[in-house]
Amino acid sequence: MSSGHKTMSAFLTVIGSLIVVILGLCVGWPSWVWPLALCVLAAVAGLPLLSARRRRPLIPPEYTLEPDLPIPPVERWEKIVREVALPSRAADYDFLFTAVVRWVPSDAPHGAPEVSYAGLALDAVLQRAAEITAAQLPHRAGLVQHQLSGELATMLPDPTGRVRAMADHVEVVLSEEDQERLDKLATVRKNETVWEHERKYEQSKRSYLGKDVLSSTGSAVVWWLAKNNDQVDRAVADIGLLAQLTAVANDEPVPERLHPYLGDTARLDDGRSLRETPRQPEEPEGPVDPAETLAHHLTGLMRSAGVAEDDPRKLLFARRVAEAAKATGIEGTDVLTRIVDAWEFPHTDPSDQADPTDPSSLFEPFEPGNAADEAPGEGHAP
Hints:
By secondary structure, the protein is of the alpha+beta class. The chain has five domains: 3-56; 78-107 and 114-174, Tetrahydropterin Synthase, Chain A (2-Layer Sandwich); 180-213; 216-276, no CATH class; 290-378, no CATH class. Helix content is 49%, strand content 9%. The protein has twelve helices and four strands. Strand 1 and strand 2 form a beta hairpin. The radius of gyration is 61 Å and the shape is elongated.
């Protein structure tokens, strides 16, 4: 009988006693009834106790002669392997394998030799893992870890059949040195790919511009019109510039038929435009007279400064140049002074003009295109 049953029986006995007392007082029982009522109440309260003691136990006494044996502890067949090198698809880059290997021995045939179940289980698990890692790239360590977790989660027998093994808590990483090398190689490959694409883009653009757009002036003008939404007036204005670009791109001079479109876009050192450039004379043979060279440069200087042949400021300009040269102490200023004197006081005697040492014979007219064609001795006096 449990403690709960005992408590309930005592509680019911007290309540029954109180009911009997209240009932006897209310009815006015005679004195001999009170002992009888108490005996009946005690008998009713004791019946449950007697019945509980007489109840047959659940386990017959004949089966309880031996005490209960303790449950033997469960043998745990597992071992932790740490950072075991497994091959990858790249040479010299190994995965580091860490896991908890668990196994269960199988029934050994009669007469079989004793074996190390731990060794067989570890070898079986590592073989299964190596077959997977050998086909994977080293920079896929995270993916390989999840593949091994799924593949090694099944307990399979080893090749000898003496043990069944599996692996849990699998971790696959690379060494810090290998990971650093792979990161550098990946960066170099990415930069090389970007550079290769940029180089191909540049080559394609150069080929397009050189062989298509700038193959001729006409192609350049059509390309310009396509880029500028049919702005014909601007295209005509830029023909000279496009012609020069085409000529430079093909290492050729600008065709003469396009010289009228050049305008002032191309000029020589002396200020003349390309379309006004006369044919260059052949260089004279023999030594060059310094006075002739100096007179030619002075003439070009005045032409560049905008001093015309009939300009009254011509002699003043030449005289100031001669005086400035003399004041600086430059050698050869006497020749420059004689040239200016010859311009200011020209000789009229033909025999003097034929003298090659006479500075007056070095004068060149200012008309464009005639200075290079006339002989040095055929100059005109101002």
